[in-house]
């Protein structure tokens, strides 16, 4: 829970400075972007994505059916992360779970990105009572704790990984709206927007041609940042039992099932937990680097 | 930037380039910094006499030899920002470093005061500050951060560029000024306060008690700059570094600040290192000029020699391009040809014409003799002038623009703040003109612009000139009054009409870098009006864009570039091309050349004038720079605090200003001419 809060707070503060156009050459931008940290992060994230796309390449074990394998085996060359209480290979479950977790995270971020930036851009460029009303709605969203909000939404929508993703996405709307609104407000004050109106532009042509392209880099950087916290939130919901039903390999669920054996078989929770952590930290690292590059 | 391996003592010459990492606090003995200011040392020597004495004094206050500064970039290759810069500043004299943006002039100042950016290093040369009273001679390159603390503020004062952002807004003006006293002396708070009041009084701030209690935002820009000067001289430094101290100020305020600096150096014998991009200011005030370009000294020497007989090609170009210097250049370059002046050349050689106006004003009395402030007559006068000018512009056309009683008042303010600045110790003529309360906005402005001519709108910041520009371009609806452009009544347009109106009127912004969308290619920016009005097919638009670019002397191949890949001058050409691509009849230039370097500015002005002749365009040219307006405008309207104070043909207004405010504005233009012409004659004969 506290981790969720932290990640949220972090990305919120990251959202504060709007992208200020710095005129560095693209080569030096590339050089600042590829630090050892971002390279490691990209590699880790790349591996996870390949896991999600081709899980069969990485493991021969069945993630759902343990067969006659002994339960609660310690990590070994055969079973890297050991086996769980009914003899399933935990590494295999983590690999197969990647696709679900990543897909859910993408859906969540997509929902937040599209809805949030639409609200924010219109609020920021329109101003007036339209903007006020939209942003007050966003304030309401922001005032409800993210976990509580997503739990409520899952209960309303029904259980299941897609619903969880949508719920997490709705909690992310507020941040996207606030960032894109602040972007839109600064962009609307720019001379080039006035010049665009001056050359006969209408509200929608200015919004689509000038405001959106100029706001997009900062918003996309936030989106990458949000992927990490979405994975975390989805795992949290899975852990609490709101996600995929039991036999499905899903990261939160894997950790939740291993929880009962923490004293005797620590690897069931710790190793999948480390994977989740590595992925979250990697996306966060990349998101931060992208945001800096966007500025 | 480590300070550990630093050489000890001023004499040792460390091999590695170094700079102190931080500025900080230091302490000094209170006695040492007791002020001499307040005691009037000034004796009215003739100027030349004083200079001779200074030269005889031999040891310069500050001596910079072969200074080189390099910026390390991420690629590891250090790039030299300045190379082989030599400078001498004598006590009581002013040395101006003049250059365009990016020429390294601020880097020079930063190196002298030890405040370079963290990725910059002094790579070669020496910087020496001479002994002064009890203070020893110092090698400024070898100082540790701790030693620097005792030098900055105490021995070298610094006046920053922008008075708007250089005072701490959370502290009172008094506390801001007292800061270096607090850091460097052991004065008690009562003594400090007394000293601050003395200083504020010294720099010409009236009612110091009251001002010291005010916060920076309550003071005008000129007064804030005075407060900064007070802070800079609080410890009576031997050297003042003024980094573009007047660039953010209006021309009349600039004059007063420059007068104050002159007074300070005369009385206290302070040497001033003056950094500026404005050759006219430097030429008017400085004893020695150093012209830098791309980090190399192009030319240096006494101001008179350099202005009278510039040796470097670049200096000559700078002189030729600076609008306010053109009188000077005209006088120097063609004293003989001025007698065979022919009115028919006015379209092609305005510089000569203006120089003539300056000197032979009475001889020109034929043009627009019945000057009047009413617009109808002003319009007539300008038409008359156009007719007499003959060649370039179509004679007597119906006015394209007719503005009557335009009023847009944002606020009325009781006017005492700014006047306080006027009635200062400096010798500026007081009493601005407006009779009633000052307003923010504009009130009862009327003028006409005949087709094919240029109206200059001149005024200081806050005079309302941009408000008029915005109303003309259809960006705001005035509270009352009428604006007619062609057959449009701009003050009462429906949304649909407004869009059509934009095909008639285009606005060119001050800063081209911000007026072009950074994510669009410049070609797309130029094509945008065509897309908005659905003119032509896609291929057709590309042709028109190429044509428009050729018209503004840009290579059409640049169309695919992004704005950040182009220079400021090229960007302004793009902005002009965008304005012209839908063939408007009226173009409003809102300070369109103010953000550009002089050489670029002169090219853009040439372009604007050429386009007017080719396309028969009508311009409204808004500028704070009278020299620029004089160069491009046919008629001029002078604004002061929202009121129109004078309108007339440009020659008439500039040669024989009627209104005291106009006179004051004109007097404040830095004008090396007045002093230089005599000197030049004396030198050459």
UniProtKB/TrEMBL annotation, chain A:
User: Where does the source fall among the domains of life?
Assistant: Bacteria
Q: Where in the cell is it found?
A: Cell membrane
GO terms under cellular component: plasma membrane
Locate the transmembrane regions by residue number: 33-54, 102-124, 144-173, 218-244, 264-282
Enumerate the PROSITE patterns for this protein: ABC_TM1
Classify the protein's membrane topology as the record does: Multi-pass membrane protein
Task: Say if the entry is tagged with keyword Transmembrane.
Answer: yes
A single GO BP term for this record reads: transmembrane transport
User: Which UniProt keywords are given for this protein, alphabetically ordered?
Assistant: Cell membrane, Membrane, Transmembrane, Transmembrane helix, Transport
From the UniProt entry, list the residue stretches annotated as the region Disordered: 1-29
Q: Does the keyword Amino-acid biosynthesis apply?
A: no
The protein's matches in CDD domains, at most eight in alphabetical order, are given as: TM_PBP2
Annotated ABC transmembrane type-1 domain residues = 98-287
What single Pfam family name could you report for this chain, choosing any that match? BPD_transp_1
Supply the PANTHER family for this chain: D,D-DIPEPTIDE TRANSPORT SYSTEM PERMEASE PROTEIN DDPC-RELATED, OLIGOPEPTIDE TRANSPORT SYSTEM PERMEASE PROTEIN APPC
Family, according to the entry, reads as follows: Belongs to the binding-protein-dependent transport system permease family.
* Name of the molecule in the record: Dipeptide transport system permease protein DppC (TC 3.A.1.5.2)
Q: Which organism is it from?
A: Brevibacterium yomogidense
TrEMBL record, chain B:
Chain spans, region Disordered: 1-31, 360-396, 413-434
Which family, according to UniProt?
A: Belongs to the ABC transporter superfamily.
Q: Where is the composition biased (Low complexity)?
A: 387-396, 422-434
Alphabetical keyword list: ATP-binding, Nucleotide-binding, Transport
Q: What is this protein called?
A: Dipeptide transport ATP-binding protein DppD (TC 3.A.1.5.2)
Q: Does the keyword Nucleotide-binding apply?
A: yes
Q: GO MF terms on file?
A: ATP binding; ATP hydrolysis activity
List, alphabetically, the InterPro entries matched. AAA+_ATPase (IPR003593), ABC_transp_ATP-bind (IPR050319), ABC_transporter-like_ATP-bd (IPR003439), ABC_transporter-like_CS (IPR017871), Oligopep_ABC_C (IPR013563), P-loop_NTPase (IPR027417)
Supply the source organism for this entry.
Brevibacterium yomogidense
User: What residues does the ABC transporter domain cover?
Assistant: 64-319, 420-666
- Identify the Pfam families for this entry: ABC_tran, oligo_HPY
One Gene Ontology term of the biological-process aspect is: transmembrane transport
Transport is among the record's keywords: yes
């Amino acid at each position: 829970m506290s981790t969720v809060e932290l990640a949220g707070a972090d990305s919120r503060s990251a959202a504060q400075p709007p992208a200020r156009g710095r005129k560095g050459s693209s080569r030096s931008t590339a050089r600042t972007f590829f630090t050892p940290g971002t390279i490691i992060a990209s590699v880790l994230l790349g591996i996870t994505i390949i896991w999600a796309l081709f899980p069969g390449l990485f493991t021969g074990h069945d993630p759902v059916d343990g067969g006659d394998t002994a339960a609660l085996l310690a990590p070994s060359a055969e079973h890297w992360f050991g086996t769980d209480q009914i003899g399933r290979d935990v590494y295999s479950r983590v690999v197969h779970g990647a696709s679900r977790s990543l897909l859910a995270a993408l859906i969540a971020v997509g929902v937040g990105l599209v809805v949030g930036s639409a609200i924010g851009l219109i609020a920021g460029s329109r101003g007036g009572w339209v903007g006020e009303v939209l942003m007050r709605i966003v304030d309401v969203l922001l005032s409800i704790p993210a976990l509580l909000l997503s739990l409520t939404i899952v209960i309303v929508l029904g259980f299941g990984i897609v619903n969880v993703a949508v719920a997490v996405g709705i909690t992310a709307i507020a941040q996207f709206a606030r960032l894109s609104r602040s972007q839109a407000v600064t962009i609307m004050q720019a001379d080039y927007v006035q010049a665009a109106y001056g050359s006969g532009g209408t509200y929608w042509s200015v919004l689509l041609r000038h405001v959106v392209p100029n706001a997009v880099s900062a918003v996309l950087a936030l989106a990458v940042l949000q992927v990490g916290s979405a994975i975390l939130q989805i795992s949290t919901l899975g852990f609490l039992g709101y996600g995929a039903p039991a036999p499905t390999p899903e990261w939160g669920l894997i950790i939740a099932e291993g929880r009962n054996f923490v004293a005797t078989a620590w690897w069931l929770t710790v190793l999948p937990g480390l994977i989740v952590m590595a992925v979250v930290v990697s996306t966060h690292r990349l998101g931060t680097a992208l945001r800096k590059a966007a500025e | 930037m480590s300070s550990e391996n630093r050489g000890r003592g001023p004499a040792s010459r460390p091999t590695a380039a170094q700079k102190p990492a931080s500025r900080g606090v230091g302490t000094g003995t209170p006695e040492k910094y007791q002020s001499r200011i307040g005691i009037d040392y000034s004796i009215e020597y003739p100027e030349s006499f004083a200079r001779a004495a200074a030269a005889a004094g031999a040891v310069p206050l500050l001596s910079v030899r072969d200074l080189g500064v390099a910026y390390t970039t991420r690629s590891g290759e250090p790039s030299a920002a300045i190379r082989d810069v030599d400078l001498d500043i004598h006590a009581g004299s002013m040395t101006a470093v003049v250059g365009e943006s990016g020429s390294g002039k601020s880097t020079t100042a930063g190196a002298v005061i030890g405040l370079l950016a963290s990725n910059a290093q002094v790579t070669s040369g020496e910087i020496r500050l001479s002994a002064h009273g009890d203070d020893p001679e110092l090698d400024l390159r070898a100082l540790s951060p701790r030693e620097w603390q005792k030098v900055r503020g105490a021995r070298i004062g610094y006046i920053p560029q922008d008075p708007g952002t250089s005072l701490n807004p959370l502290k009172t003006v008094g506390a801001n000024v007292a800061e270096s006293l607090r850091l460097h002396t052991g004065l008690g708070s009562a003594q400090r306060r007394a000293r601050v009041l003395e200083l504020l009084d010294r720099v010409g701030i009236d009612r110091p008690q009251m001002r010291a209690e005010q916060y920076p935002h309550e003071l005008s820009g000129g007064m804030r700059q005075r407060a900064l000067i007070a802070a800079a001289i609080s410890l009576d430094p031997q050297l003042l570094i003024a980094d573009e101290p007047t660039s953010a100020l209006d021309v009349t305020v600039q004059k007063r600040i420059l007068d104050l600096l002159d007074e300070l150096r005369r009385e206290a014998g302070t040497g001033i290192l003056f950094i500026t991009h404005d050759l006219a200011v430097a030429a008017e005030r400085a004893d020695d000029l150093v012209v830098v370009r791309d980090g190399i000294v192009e030319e240096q020497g006494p101001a008179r020699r350099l202005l009278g007989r510039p040796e470097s090609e670049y200096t000559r170009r700078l002189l030729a391009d600076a609008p306010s210097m053109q009188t000077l250049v005209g006088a120097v370059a063609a004293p003989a040809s001025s007698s065979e002046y022919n009115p028919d050349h006015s379209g092609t050689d305005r510089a000569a014409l203006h120089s003539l106006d300056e000197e032979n004003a009475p001889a020109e009395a034929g043009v627009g003799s019945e000057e009047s402030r009413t617009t109808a007559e002003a319009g007539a006068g300008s038409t008359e002038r156009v007719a007499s000018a003959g060649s370039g512009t179509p004679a007597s056309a119906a006015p394209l623009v007719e503005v009557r009683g335009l009023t847009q008042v944002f606020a009325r303010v009781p006017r005492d703040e700014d006047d306080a600045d006027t009635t200062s110790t400096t010798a500026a003529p007081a009493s601005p003109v407006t009779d009633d309360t000052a307003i923010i906005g504009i009130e009862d402005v009327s003028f006409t612009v005949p087709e094919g001519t240029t109206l200059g709108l001149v005024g200081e910041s806050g005079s309302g000139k941009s408000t008029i520009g915005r109303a003309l371009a259809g960006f705001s609806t005035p509270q009352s009054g009428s604006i007619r452009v062609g057959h449009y009544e701009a003050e009462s347009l429906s949304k649909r009409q407004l869009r059509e109106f934009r095909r008639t009127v285009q606005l060119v912004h001050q800063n081209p870098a911000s007026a072009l969308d950074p994510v669009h290619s410049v070609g797309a920016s130029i094509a945008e009006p065509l897309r908005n009005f659905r003119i032509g097919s896609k291929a057709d638009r590309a042709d028109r864009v190429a044509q428009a670019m050729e018209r503004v002397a840009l290579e059409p191949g640049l169309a695919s570039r992004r704005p950040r890949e182009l220079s400021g001058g090229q960007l302004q050409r793009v902005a002009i091309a965008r304005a012209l691509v839908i063939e408007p009849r009226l173009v409003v230039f809102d300070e369109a050349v103010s953000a550009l370097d002089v050489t670029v500015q002169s090219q853009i002005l040439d372009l604007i004038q050429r386009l007017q002749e080719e396309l028969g365009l009508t311009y409204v040219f808004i500028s704070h720079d009278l020299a620029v307006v004089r160069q491009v405008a046919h008629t001029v309207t002078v604004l002061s605090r929202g009121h129109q104070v004078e309108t007339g043909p440009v020659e008439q207004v500039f040669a024989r200003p009627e209104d005291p405010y106009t006179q004051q504005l004109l007097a404040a233009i830095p004008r090396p001419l007045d002093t230089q012409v005599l000197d030049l004659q004396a030198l050459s004969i």
